[in-house]
Amino acid sequence: MNVMQKSAWKNAPMLMLISLGLMILPVSNSIGQIPLYAAGLMWLIQLLRKQSSGNRTTWIMLGGWMILILISLTYAVHPELGIRKLSRFFIFPLTGAVAAACVAGDDLQRRVLCLCESLVFGVCILGLYDIFCFPYEVFKLGVKFEDVGDMTSPQFYLVGIMLWLGLVSMRREQVKRIWWVCLPFLMTGLLMHQKRGVWLATMVSVGIWTLWSRKWKTLLTMILIAGVALCFPFVRGRLGELMEVIQPTHGGRMVLWNEVAPRVFEEYPWGMGYNGSKYEDFRDILPAATHMEVGLRHLHNNFLQIRLELGWLGVLWWLLWMGLVFYKGFRQGPPELAVLRGAVVFAFLGLFLNGLVEYNFGDSEILKVYLVLLGLIDAFQPANCLSLTPRKTL
After folding, report:
1. Whole-number Å distance between alpha carbons of 251 and 289
2. Looking at the predicted structure, is the pLDDT value of residue 390 above 70?
């Protein structure tokens, strides 16, 4: 058995663990994260034994991010809150595991397809679950339709739709036609959760990806789907409420962005520490007459929340990190995977855009999706695609 065959065989269990985790994660974070943590541990063991490697820039950024978090705990207002979340460091090796599992042999395309298909399949399972769950909660439990959804599931649908576009845009012999069955589940789930930020992020990501890939039939299809969606009263109603939501009297994001953020930044110029804010901290700095939704403890914006926790240094590091991700994503890679690579990058862009109205970088499930997409982007890099043996890059 040559070196290439040994490497491919060695990382096959890692690939299967990640695939299993991605199929379960959209439905159950507690169960789905188990094989993902296991895959990350396998990669760490390989790294320590010098049987694998990691992308240098990725691990510089991840390492610097962890250092900034640890430093912030020394001046945190509520350090116990940040300490509780340090366990998330253990999921960071997932990025290395994804890249290593994809570039282990000479079948990069098959391995990347396997991971993308696994995540799309998992999101479709979530869609099937929601199709049965929503009517039950509305008609049996009496919950209002607009109150049934959550903030995490629609972001899975966003990523699922982008990866689905990449899959079906490849040659027919590479992707099974059965994936066309997934679209109704993906679109139905996205609409049912009624999260306008994700809707808009999906529309922008799909539109830009279409212009980039020149898949004009796809653009026409998505326009038709959007037209059909607008025929539903709840869609028109939710979009019509946008102007109402951005009013300060609503007590939501505009109060956080315009009233809470400036005051808390002035009071804590170096930040409050990782995961270090409470609802009471926000409420105490506002006038009694100012309405704010009960329980809010983050600023519903990645940029502002990172500034709140880690100060301007954290913001600059994070923006540099994100810039490097997009730079690497659009570098030249395997031509046969160009469309799918674009779908992965624009799925990342969709999460980034939704982060303008939601602190999704701090969401446990979505953080794992971020890390998977980072690993896939690393796997698409020319150096990774050409080098099938371990490299000393970490």
Report:
1. 11
2. no
Structure tokens at 366: 């979505």
Residue 249 CB: number of other CB atoms within 10 A?
10
Q: How many domains does the chain have?
A: 1
pLDDT digits (tens, 9 = 90+) for 130-162: 999 988 888 878 888 777 878 899 999 999 999
Count other Cβ atoms within 10 Å, centred on residue 334.
17
Rounded CA-CA distance 75/316 in Å is 19
Domain extent, residue 204, equals: 3-248+293-386
d(CA 387, CA 394): 15
Identity of the residue numbered 233: P
Q: Is residue 272 part of a domain?
A: no
pLDDT digits (tens, 9 = 90+) for 325-371: 999 988 877 777 888 899 999 999 999 999 999 999 989 999 999 99
**Is 212 among the domain residues?**
yes
Burial 158-167 (b: 16+ CB within 10 A, else e): bbbbbbbbbb
Q: Does 264 reside within a domain?
A: no
Residue 322 near residue 349, CB atoms below 8 Å: no
Residue 287 lies in a domain: no
Contacts for 286 with CB less than 8 Å, ≥ 6 apart? 255, 259, 260, 263, 292
